[in-house]
């Protein structure tokens, strides 16, 4: 019954999410990863090291993180394999590494807050983006929310699901560990440029297929969203995704921009520093709360398509 793990994990996590009571009592696996990443970073990424030594230290830290996660998850999976319904427990554990429910809730909250006031919108979007919210006008807040929604559809949902299908609980946990490391230390500033190199590069490798598959899913989902264009979604994704410095981030963002005829991307401010990023799409740049909700609708239909794909794969494996 293991083929049922991925579709059931998607279906259950989308409805229930990760229980807040568990966050308060034991935390979240991503929080545990973060503590280990921070522990290694404060001890290995020291000023006295040369750039080459920092890069090596980053490789060692990533290896320790992945080895720890691998040992724990393989051990859990081995024990569960001895139990009659162990696959059900594995499925429930896997839901912790998906982010469908919380992502949709957080982005919808930005729309609700923005309807109230610009300041409320800035406050709400600060919980989902890393850029400076005070530098954003209404359109900037809306774009930031939609861009985060698009990119997180890939690395928060599709990519974890992809590695769950391939390698079960160890696969989804290892992917999430790498993705967490990339978000924490995979930066290009002086502190992390060398130390975070391994995390950033490995994250790029792991997301190569999921990012492009996300663009395919978004394109397919357009058939179920009034006004969305599948042809434009795929054309803009192919045209504009290569503009991004990341080999992966541009694919879901450009697909959302083309699908909904929005203009996303462009310059943004991080910690007071203006970063010039490429624009995606040729549509309207003056976005607002209703446009965020339209993007959330496209996101939900994308999840529907993903669930359908997962269910078909499960049936094929069960029948083979």
From TrEMBL:
Keyword Transcription applies: no
Assigned protein family: Belongs to the CobD/CbiB family.
Role: Converts cobyric acid to cobinamide by the addition of aminopropanol on the F carboxylic group.
Subcellular location: Cell membrane
GO cellular component, one term: plasma membrane
Residues annotated as transmembrane: 56-83, 158-178, 302-319
Sorted UniProt keywords: Cell membrane, Cobalamin biosynthesis, Membrane, Transmembrane, Transmembrane helix
Main location: membrane
One GO process term, biological-process aspect: cobalamin biosynthetic process
Record membrane topology: Multi-pass membrane protein
Protein name: Cobalamin biosynthesis protein CobD
InterPro entries reported for this sequence: Cobalamin_biosynth_CobD/CbiB
UniProt pathway: Cofactor biosynthesis; adenosylcobalamin biosynthesis
Pfam families linked: CobD_Cbib
Gene: cbiB
One MF annotation (Gene Ontology) recorded for this entry: ABC-type vitamin B12 transporter activity
HAMAP family documented for this protein: CobD_CbiB (MF_00024)
Transferase in keyword set: no
């Amino acid at each position: 019954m293991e083929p049922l793990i991925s579709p059931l994990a998607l279906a259950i996590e989308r409805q229930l999410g990760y229980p807040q009571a568990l966050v308060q009592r034991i935390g979240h696996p991503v929080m545990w990863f973060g503590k280990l990443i921070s522990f290694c970073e404060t001890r290995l990424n020291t000023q006295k090291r040369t750039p080459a030594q920092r890069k090596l230290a980053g490789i060692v830290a990533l290896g320790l993180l992945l080895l720890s996660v691998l040992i724990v998850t393989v051990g859990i999976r081995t024990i569960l394999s001895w139990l009659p319904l162990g696959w059900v427990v594995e499925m429930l554990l896997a839901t912790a590494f998906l982010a469908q429910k919380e992502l949709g809730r957080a982005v919808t909250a930005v729309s609700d807050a923005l309807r109230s006031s610009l300041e409320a919108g800035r406050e709400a979007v600060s919980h989902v983006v890393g850029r400076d919210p005070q530098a954003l006008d209404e359109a900037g807040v809306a774009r930031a929310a939609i861009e985060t929604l698009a990119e997180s559809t890939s690395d928060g949902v599709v990519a974890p699901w992809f590695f769950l299908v391939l390698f079960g609980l160890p696969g989804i946990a290892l992917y999430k560990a790498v993705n967490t490391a990339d978000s924490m230390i995979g930066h290009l500033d002086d502190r992390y440029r060398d130390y975070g190199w391994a995390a950033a590069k490995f994250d790029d490798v792991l997301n190569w297929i999921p990012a492009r598959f996300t663009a395919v899913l978004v394109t397919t989902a357009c058939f179920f969203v009034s006004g969305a264009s599948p042809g434009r979604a795929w054309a803009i994704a192919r045209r504009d995704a290569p503009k991004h410095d990341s080999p992966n981030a541009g694919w879901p963002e450009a697909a959302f921009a083309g699908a909904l005829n929005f203009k996303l991307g462009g310059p943004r401010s991080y910690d007071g520093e203006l970063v010039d990023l490429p624009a995606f799409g040729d549509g309207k740049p003056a976005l607002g709360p209703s446009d965020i909700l339209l993007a959330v609708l496209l996101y939900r239909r994308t999840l529907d398509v993903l669930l359908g794909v997962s269910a078909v794969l499960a049936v094929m494996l069960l029948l083979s």
